[in-house]
Automatic annotation (TrEMBL):
Gene that this sequence comes from: pheS
Coiled coil: 81-108
Catalytic activity: tRNA(Phe) + L-phenylalanine + ATP = L-phenylalanyl-tRNA(Phe) + AMP + diphosphate + H(+)
Organism this protein belongs to: Cutibacterium avidum ATCC 25577
Molecular function via GO: ATP binding; magnesium ion binding; phenylalanine-tRNA ligase activity; tRNA binding
Protein name: Phenylalanine--tRNA ligase alpha subunit
Keyword vocabulary terms for this entry: Aminoacyl-tRNA synthetase, ATP-binding, Coiled coil, Cytoplasm, Ligase, Magnesium, Metal-binding, Nucleotide-binding, Protein biosynthesis
Localisation: Cytoplasm
GO biological process: phenylalanyl-tRNA aminoacylation
Length: 369
């Protein structure tokens, strides 16, 4: 605080003197006019209107004046600050506009430059899912096994407990290779790979075999004559349904997150007992069942999705491969890859998988995740 309080004349307080105030305003206006960028103007703003600026300090002196003198001094300082602020605002607009124009000029696109025209592809969703499945199982110590797509009848049927007179054999629309008398066909499942492996390798065996399979099926939204399966086979001492359930559960969780699986009794010639594997709907988790207000497209409000088949390997299959069934047992499971991509990625038409439109692959971002 400054100045005595008796017979007080505000003119005597130097910082509130009209000439002094005018001089501070003039300094501020000069500095504002000289600022050539918004960054410089910011510094000017701090120096001339900030808490420690001469005008702000002068403003604080007003409180120390006798009441009669306060009004006059307040008006003087208020007007001075108003002029400075107005000048700052005008200069700010001027500089910002100039800077914008300069930036736009600098960033002008040269439309004559060549552009990158090669389109970006993406892994096919089937390939991406097969890679994912192989990652899941190799991480658990399983091996990947592959086999021929054209098979002899024995590998495709007989060894899998589907003898020539077995009724299930007629259920599969097999594509036979000419001449039919040679007994060669396009494999109807990836199961023959199990036989090839068991003939070459003594247990313990843990393999996953993804690949193409072939049926004389219609070509429509839900059927393709060529589609993909992945099969798993584990043969070792003391293998039980418990191991099978644990493995299928781990597989389901790796593919779909925190979901449960359900086994329904079924019949397959190559496993005994056999089960169909249902997956708890990973979208609604069953909340859509009996709840018309919350329908679920993924499971058609059934709460479960059919995913594949599985079971304990029929001893006849192991015997056909020369494996001692008193020592060893095994489990096997198989899932449709196309079907898995279909409901995992909400791709309702199987024909999109084979028609080669890169937009389909790209829309699924190369896969499965
Ligand atoms: Zn659902």
């Amino acid at each position: 605080m400054s100045g005595p309080n008796t017979n007080y004349d505000p003119v005597q307080v130097s910082t509130l003197d009209a000439n002094q105030v005018d001089a501070r305003v003039a300094e501020a206006l000069d500095a504002i006019a000289e600022a050539s960028t918004t960054a410089e103007l910011k510094q000017v703003r701090i120096a001339h209107t900030g808490d420690k600026s001469p005008l702000a300090l002068a403003n604080r002196e007003i409180g120390a004046l006798p009441p009669a003198a306060r009004k006059d001094a307040g008006k003087r300082i208020g007007q001075a600050r108003g002029r400075v602020n107005q000048a700052l605002k005008a200069r700010q607009e001027e500089l910002a506009e100039a800077e914008l124009e300069a930036r736009l000029a600098a960033e002008t696109t040269d439309v004559t430059l060549p552009v990158v025209t090669s389109p970006q592809g993406a892994p096919h969703p089937i390939t991406a899912l097969i890679d994912d499945v192989c990652d899941v199982f190799t991480a658990m110590g399983w091996e990947i096994a592959e086999g021929p797509e054209a098979e002899s009848e024995w590998f495709n049927f007989d060894a899998l407990n589907l003898g020539t007179d077995h009724p299930a054999r007629a259920l599969q629309d097999t594509l036979w290779l000419d001449p039919v008398s040679d007994g060669k066909c396009m494999r109807t499942a990836t199961s023959p790979v199990q036989i090839h492996t068991l003939l070459k390798q003594q247990p313990p065996v843990r393999i996953i075999s993804p690949g193409k399979v072939f049926r004389a099926d219609e070509y429509d939204a839900t059927h393709l004559p060529v589609f993909h399966q992945v099969e798993g086979l584990c043969v070792d001492k003391g293998i039980t349904m418990g191991h099978l359930k644990g493995t299928v559960d781990a597989f389901a969780r790796a593919m779909f997150g925190d979901v449960r699986t359900r086994f329904r009794p079924h019949y397959f010639p190559f496993t005994e007992p056999s089960a169909e594997v249902d997956l708890e709907c990973f979208v609604c988790h069953g909340a859509s069942v009996g709840n018309p207000d919350r329908p679920c497209r993924t499971c058609r409000s059934e709460g479960w999705i059919e995913w594949g088949g599985c079971g304990i390997v029929n001893p006849r299959v192991l015997i056909a491969c020369g494996i001692d069934t008193r020592v060893y047992s095994g489990f096997a499971f198989g899932m449709g890859i196309d079907r898995t991509v279909m409901f995992r990625n909400n791709a309702p038409d199987l024909r999109d998988f084979v028609e080669g439109d890169v937009r389909f692959s790209r829309s699924l971002k190369g896969g499965a995740r």
